Amino acid sequence: MNKHYDRLSQEQEAVRETIASNSDISSANQPSSASVDSDHRYVVKVITELEKDLESNTSAGRPEIAQIEEKLHHMEVAIKNAGAVSGSARFTDYARNSKSVGLPILKGHNDERYEAIIGKAKDAKEAALEDVKYSASRNVINMA
């Protein structure tokens, strides 16, 4: 962008010199460069903001992508170590080459997710019970 602006500025200077050198035989006025300068500043500002937005948008999901890739890796290892048996018996003779990859990690992830979901459900249940208690006591007060 700056290269094009510099080239345009040079052309504008050449036009000014040409008009100035012919001022004795022509009444032409020199063109104003105010709008070009302000447009250049505006374009540079917009491009800078777009670059920042692009960087923030492309880096926003990287941690989640890394977690998904890690889970996929553990699934691949679990399936590979399970052998060629199909169906529900597939993981009965699970070859445990390492305790840090494969099925143990996936089980841990499932346990964490289960606990998180149960915790949310308990919180929702307690909130609903509080609402019922509050509305029931309010109804008793209103009846009196």
Give a brief outline of the structure.
This protein has helices at 2-21, 34-59, 62-82, 103-143. It has 144 residues and is an all-alpha fold.
**Rg value:** 35 Å
H/E series, N to C? HHHH
Distance between the termini: 78 Å
Q: What's the pLDDT, averaged over the residues? A: 75
Strand percent estimate: under 5%
- Ranges where pLDDT stays below 50 over 5 or more residues in a row are none
The biggest beta sheet is recorded as: none
Overall tally of domains = 2
The total beta strand count reads: 0
The tally of helices reads 4
The multimeric state of the shown protein is single chain
Helix residue percentage = over 70%
Shape: elongated
Task: Indicate the structural class.
Answer: mainly alpha
Description:
There is one protein chain. By secondary structure, this protein is mostly helical. It has 4 helices and no strands. It has helices at residues 2-21, 34-59, 62-82, 103-143. The model has no long low-confidence stretch (mean pLDDT 75).
